[in-house]
Amino acid sequence: MDLRDSPEDQERSLICFYKAQKTEWASPLNCKLEGDAAVGEGVNRFFLSKSMTLLQFGFHINFGNTNITRMFEGEPDHLTPSTAQFLLESDMFLVAGRMMGHSFLHSGPCISGLSPAITHVLFGGSPETTTIQIEDCPDIDIRTTIQLLEGNAELTEQEEKAVFDLALSWDLPGVTKSNRKWLHERLLFHAVISRTSRQVKQLRKGLKETMVWPFLKERADIIPTFLPRTSEAALNFHDCVADPGGGREDEDEDECCLEDKCRVAGYLRIFFEKASCAQLKALLQFWTGWELLPSELTLKVVSSDFPKSATCFETLRLPAHYHDYEAFVTDIQACLNSIDTGFGLV
């Protein structure tokens, strides 16, 4: 991947990598970025983080008259594979399965918020026994039509026509008093499970090629770790940041007084409290190379102009010159905006 290329070309390079056949995905990972001299574990983390971020939030490649091409659609904790035909024809869900398995093999980030119904089917559960919620239907128009069948209220002529048109498009009968509940279940099943069955098959094939699927099939207790809920992916920095006042300073770093260290560390803790989840994940990517919390993060307050990080050593170096929180946040936000551009070692 060449960081001098446009974001679209970078993403194409990444997709080409995961479309390669007969790849040993469990082999040691050693990434190099064209246009950036950075090396080490931090580069591997950057690559895996970028891959999973694109999978979670969408590619910037225009596959079908859209600025963002999302692989998964819907609400948090109810995400389902996109039903876009061009993604299926391009084997993009096979690519997605390889990306998910590859990241898991190398202790990288995971996709969060996938629908439990999709997860159940993905790992061999019977589609007929899965529990489907109305929130699992990402198409609001279809969801609204299906919801008309809830309860026993009499449908208007317009509502009955909307249900009939949807049912007819999926080879199901129109609604009657005797089949109302059954039709509600079948429409919801088709909207969530049937329409995504081929996508799930491609995902499963990709996971099998990385040898992750057989492992998770036998160890179902690890599936929640592999596909966590959105709430479980929340970050808590407070317990893993080492005291910036402790430890020995590196020889190439100027000594700072304890007062400076405590003041700047205090600004960082205020940022932890006020920042959004997206900002915290971006900070962790800047700090370590990806959005996974390690057992301990190292913070150093040093004499410098701007914040810097050593991702391989999970160390954040903050300048000691800050005397107000606003200036601190401005520089931190500038750092967060740079996480997709590499390491700056050109």
From TrEMBL:
Keywords (A to Z) from UniProt: Transferase, Ubl conjugation pathway
Extent of the signal sequence: none
Keyword hit for Secreted: no
Domain HECT residue range list: 19-346
GO molecular function, a single term: transferase activity
Ubl conjugation among keywords: no
Name of this chain's protein: HECT domain-containing protein
UniProt source species: Pagothenia borchgrevinki
